[in-house]
Amino acid sequence: MDVRWVSPSGVEDCDPSDLPALRAREDGLLWVDITSCDEATARSLADLFGFHDLALRDILQRNHLPKLHAYPDHLFVVLHAPEPADAGHVHLIELDQFIGKRYLVTTHGPLGHGVSEDTALRESRHVVERLRAGRLQVSTPFELSYALVSAVAHRQGEELGRLATTIAGLEQRVRSDQGDPVKVLEEMFLVRHELLSVRTMAAQSSEVFSRLSVMDRMVPPEAPPLIRDLIDRFERVRHMCDDEKEFVQGVIDFYQARTSTRMNLAMERLALIAAVLLPVTAIASVYGMNIIVGDHTDVPQLGVVLAIMGLVVGGMLAWSKRLGWW
Q1: How far apart are CA 167 and CA 148, in angstroms?
Q2: DSSP code for 17
Q3: What's 15's DSSP letter?
Q4: Which of 269, 280, 266 is nearest to 320 (CA)?
Q5: Could you give the number of structural domains in the chain?
Q6: What are the DSSP E strand ranges found in 193-303?
Q7: CA nearest to 164, candidates 235, 237, 93, 94
Q8: How far apart are CA 143 and CA 31, in angstroms?
Q9: What are phi and psi of 14, to 5 degrees?
Q10: Could you tell me the CA-to-CA distances from 199 to 90, 105, 312 in Å, in that order?
């Protein structure tokens, strides 16, 4: 648990035992940042801040959907940031926020398998660095929350940029006809799935803040323009995901159309070969055993049959050429 007191003079690191005294201070705002919350920590938060049992349940378990709950003296918000994993999979890095009048409590997790604490705390550490360097000034908990959520939107945009680079590489491989066709197609479908994951996070985050934008009585006076900016950020990520998804679908369609065309051409050639050889095979089947025998061959009849075979093959080739099969 990291306890910080944020004031115009800077960021002060405090001990968790100072929380009751910090709650009484009015010369700044309290920021409690918890990496992984357990039952004991959740109960201490309830005793100190009066959080609802349902909100405490939400910070103790994984939430696959963002959410917003308004209470008389604070807001509870759940959001997700993306973290790439194996091809086709994107981790949901959960950020839970209790936004009060003079405090902000943030929790991260529970963390999924393979997600480190450094990854979960990326946004918090980024905001702390900006505060210590003087590049960020906040006077209310909602402004601090805005900085954290902006970092979440930025991470979604970075993940979208990484996927766009991957898509460009796949598109180049498709145009140059490089690589194993099955592997290339599988990679394109996996990238499209990752795009859908990022798009879903952005769209759902936008819905949360759209809901918050109409709760006039529950937000502080400085919040409305910040909320509108966050909605715009998430909507931009969502629209760009849609554009990239449409592009990668176009690449997939092109790849599948080209592959299907090649298969059709191969099938036409095989059909042509079968059509040309079919009458020859039929003639040979009927006359073969009667024309060539072990001790005697009917040379005139053999010549006539071979001539008929040649005429049939020539006629079939001429007919298929006229149809444009070759």
Answers
A1: 29
A2: G
A3: -
A4: 269
A5: 2
A6: none
A7: 237
A8: 12
A9: -125, 165
A10: 11, 27, 61
Domain ranges, residue 285: 268-322
Say if residue 185 is in the same domain as residue 295: no
From 62, 89, 91, select the one nearest 78 (Cα to Cα): 62
Q: Is residue 263 part of a domain?
A: no
Identity at 19, one-letter amino acid code: L
Residue 140 belongs to what H/E stretch? none
298: Cβ contacts below 8 Å, ≥ 6 apart: 291
What span, in angstroms and rounded, lies between the C-alpha atoms of 205 and 72? 23
pTM of the model: 0.77
Nearest to 157 by CA among 109, 89, 246, 149: 149
Q: HSE-up of 135 (CA within 13 Å, CB side)?
A: 7
Residue with tokens 């991957």: 166
AA identity, residue 153: A
At residue 290 the predicted structure's pLDDT band, cuts being 50, 70 and 90, is: low
Intra-chain end-to-end CA distance of the chain, in Å: 75
Residues 182 and 284 occupy one common structural domain: no
In the prediction, which pLDDT does 325 show? 60
- Lookup result for tokens 């065309």: 261
**Tokens standing for residue 78:** 């759940």
Residue type, 5: W
131 and 8 in contact (C-beta within 8 Å)?
A: no
Report the CATH number at residue 40: 3.30.460.20
For 214-250, write each residue's pLDDT tens digit. 887 788 888 899 999 999 999 999 999 999 888 888 8
Measure the CA–CA gap between 153 and 159, rounded to whole angstroms.
Answer: 10
Q: Which two tokens stand for residue 130?
A: 């900006």
Quote the CA–CA distance of 291 and 157 in Å, as a whole number. 79
Q: Is residue 24 part of a domain?
A: yes
pLDDT one-digit tens code per residue, 175-224 = 777 767 778 778 888 888 888 889 999 999 999 999 988 887 788 888 89
